[in-house]
Design goal:
Length: 57
């Protein structure tokens, strides 16, 4: 990806996500693709670690 080659990623997205179209609700599709429900905790933890000291969070 760093080299600008997105073929592998695009292939994965087409196989796992795009082929389903609107057959599933977003939450259901995420669970089918990743094996778990959408969980904002890891992202929030990342943001807090990254910006916590800067903004006093």
């Amino acid at each position: 990806i760093r080299a600008g080659k997105f073929e592998a990623l695009l292939g994965w997205l087409r196989e796992k996500v795009h082929r389903h179209g609107r057959k599933f609700e977003p939450q259901e599709l995420v669970q089918k693709v990743t094996g778990s429900k959408i969980d904002p905790a890891p992202y929030l933890r990342y943001l807090k670690e990254k910006f916590g000291q800067i903004y006093g969070l």
